[in-house]
Amino acid sequence: MNRTFFHPILLCVSLVAIFLPPRSNGVGAFSPPSSPSGTARRGRGVAAASRRRMFRPEAAETTDTTRECSENGSSSRRREMILDACTLSGIAAGAAVIPSAFVFIPSVAHAAEKTKATAVKKTGMVDTQVVGERLHSVPLFSLTDETGVPFTVFGEDAIITAYFFTTYDEAARILKVAKDSGDKARKEAIQVATKRKDKKTLEELEASGNPWAKAQIRTVPLDFAVTLSTRQRKGGQTSYLISPDQRDTQDALALDTSGRKELPEGRVPLFYFEGGIDKSSAERPLFFRKSELLERWNVVNPGVSPPELKLTELFSTVSEMVRPGTVDEELRDLVFVVPKGSAKRAEEIGRSGRSEFKLGQRIVVF
Predict the structure, then answer these.
(1) Is pTM beyond 0.85 here?
(2) Which among 104, 141, 205, 342 is most buried, taking Cβ atoms within 10 Å?
(3) 262-273, pLDDT tens digit by residue?
(4) Quick check: helix, strand or coil at residue 236?
């Protein structure tokens, strides 16, 4: 059962402008919240719609939709789900729409140059259990209420979306903007209702408050988020997207020579050096943050100029690691580097006694 709660529309107008750029051809495009492209226009449009609705709160609603996932599913079950998701068309279809500048897979593009080819395998180069374990070590962060029910956004395309953020700082930044925007929208609505002497609306506003006031940041592992992001979504079900830190988005766009101003929504850039960082190690680390990749290089190779910085994408990489028929053995050596501070933040959240992230329920903001 998918339980949906609707909060007063006026308190949610600005979050849509933050999260939701226009979609084209069925594919979303993620733009950094600091980018002016489309943001102000969307914010004004949603605000106008809210005013037409007189800011009346929606009642809590329960919808009889297919259960999305067991909220108490074990890690092994999640990895089985990754096996299903990664070997089906979900990731492959997502990878197909990524701009060419963001689909470079480490070493795969150079496979033709190898003198020693690897026999084509019927299974992926990396076992899905191993991929799941590597993803599981990376914590992501989401916005929920005090019971763990996630906040979701109702987009202009009528898709309800929940977001997982790659860094705690990004989740905290979005939450602060949401709270500030909610307070501002509520204040403006009170002023309008007071001027119109609309007693009923004033009473509703007084009773409703800001839904973001008690919002909290929860943590989920990356394998969990990847599974939800790649599953086939049925009508009415929540769409889940992983959102990179705005600074990492900007770093990725800076490496794109095409002049593109936006990344596709839900795509996560990864930074790396061809051949890795430590020549004495077989590991090929992939970083969510460009700055941390360069910092690690300088620690391991002091005084040595770094090689050309390379860019790939999370879902493309995972798809290639588990895709049957892959021939690049270096895919086995790929590891995902946890952003600095994420593990500590996740541990603090775990010790706080907060409820776990809940599936099957959602809070929809407009």
Answers:
(1) no
(2) 141
(3) 888 899 999 999
(4) coil
